[in-house]
Amino acid sequence: MDSRSSANGLAATSDKTPATANASVRLIVARQYAKSLEEQHSNPDRVFYDGEDLQGLDPMLVALSTVDKENPRHWTKAKKWRVTVVLGAYAFFAPFASQGLAYNHNGELLNSVRLTSLLGTIFAPSLESVMEDLGETSPVRGALQIGIFLIAFALAPIFLAPLTERYGRRVVITCGNIIFIVFCLGGGFARSTGQLAVCRFFSGVGGSSSLSAYGGVLADLWGLKDRPRASAAVGGTLLLGPVLGPVCGGWISELVSWRWTCWVPAIAATVLEVIASFTYSESHVPTLLRQKRRRLMSKAPEASYYTVLEFVSDGTKNSKPVTKTLETIGRPLAYLFLDPAAALLAIYYAFVFGVLYLVIVTFQGVFGGLYGHSPGIVGIDFLSEGIGALIGMALSTWLLELVYKRQTARSQDSYKSETR
Predict the structure, then answer these.
(1) pTM of the entire structure?
(2) Cys-Cys with 386: which of 65, 165, 205, 243 at CB 3.0–4.6 Å?
(3) Angle at which helices 260-279 and 77-98 cross, to 10°
(4) What average pLDDT does the segment 277-288 reach?
């Protein structure tokens, strides 16, 4: 439908009742919106279309203003990088809290075979002291304190990521960080291994919220050309977290109580939350549209403002809120088991992170056991892995940009995201 036919359609509604006229205008807007979506289908950069250029058809249509830079894609680079850096800081803390070194109360490295797979965490760089303090003698329960955080960190994003699409990025990240803070603090005050395990599990759930949202946030902010650098910045924090965790955990195990390995991440995350309350902005366009509509409706309750979200169906439009949420959460599981590409990618990442943590375990035995490094020095040994991660991120970013430039030399539409 072209602008002339749209104008004729609007003129034809002038003799109708207000309710009928509004319905007719919305139908015209809906048809034009569907046509615009079809035209954008060939664009490899799938950004949410808010219908700003359709406001001329109906002033009641709420859209994000390009002039006022309300759309995240039109934010200044400074604001985009500010949000990206804060997101990277969020993403850093959970991996940081997930890794560390295991030492006894004498500062000696524990035998990794004796305590199963010692993926030591920063919360317990002195694992034997933890178990002694809590009156626990079972090595299995000791290993549980180590692994339960990582189990939560791995599983929670499957359920949290869909919530960022329904309720927005910021609310999920903020609530997750608060949960992380509360249960990290609780872990430091634990008086039994049961209490500690519960706190570690929920701190892992909360800490994974940024991991659940970071892919969506980067897509909200950055186009295909600039996204590799932003992705490298955030991805680098995910890799550096488990590297720097042992550095801090090693020295904490020498100098202060094991409880401070719970409190230090909580304190740092609290400082970050205060900073983020002033610097981090919502980037999910549908959420921004809902917020803008609510603001306009609060000023003019009698007005019939609406957004293009009325024209977008996710298959849960007529469902109850609880049903919508459950269906949204269940969607990633369906993709995981029914989509071969998603399943293979998940297996690949599981292998990569498995190798990463396996190497971390061998660092403990090699440098602490064979070479006799102190806890603090063994922590510093982990920096070599961080240097390697940074080099890898730099090379992958350069390759992604090179591929993008070559594929888009003739046309933007020639780029294929599968190339990555």
Answers:
(1) 0.80
(2) 243
(3) 170
(4) 94
Contact of 296 with 304, CB cutoff 8 Å: no
Task: Annotate 180-248 with DSSP letters as a single string.
Answer: HHHHHHHHHT--SHHHHHHHHHHHHHHHTHHHHHHHHHHHHH--TTTHHHHHHHHHHHHHHHHHHHHHH
| C-alpha span between 2 and 153 (Å, rounded) | 50
- Report whether 281 contacts 64 (CB < 8 A): no
Phi and psi angles of residue 189, each rounded to the nearest 5 degrees, phi first: -100, 5
Q: Does the domain spanning 75-284+357-382 belong to CATH 3.30.413.10?
A: no
- Band (260; pLDDT cuts 50, 70, 90): confident
Q: Which of 72, 37, 33, 39 is nearest to 54 (CA)?
A: 33
Q: What is the token pair recorded at 183?
A: 């249960």
Cα dihedral sign for 143, 146, 147, 151? positive
Q: How far is CA 238 from CA 25, 92, 97, 182, in A?
A: 48, 6, 11, 21
> Does residue 306 sit in helix, strand or coil?
strand
Enumerate the CATH 1.20.1250.20 domain ranges in the chain, comma separated: 75-284+357-382
Please compute the mean of the pLDDT values over residues 233-244 and round it to a whole number: 77
Identify the CA nearest to 27 among candidates 62, 63, 65, 61. Answer: 61
Residue 22 scores a pLDDT above 90? no
Tell me whether residue 212 is exposed, middle or buried, using C-beta atoms within 10 angstroms of its C-beta: 0 to 12, 13 to 18, 19 or more.
Answer: buried
**Phi-psi map region of 202: left, alpha, beta (phi>0 left; psi -120 to 50 alpha):** alpha
pLDDT, position 14: 42
Per residue in 136-180, pLDDT (tens digit) is 777 667 667 767 877 888 888 888 888 898 899 999 999 999 999
Residues 6+ apart with CB under 8 A from 168: 282, 284, 287
pLDDT in tens, 86-126: 999 998 877 766 554 444 444 444 433 322 233 344 544 45
109 strand-pairing partners? 103
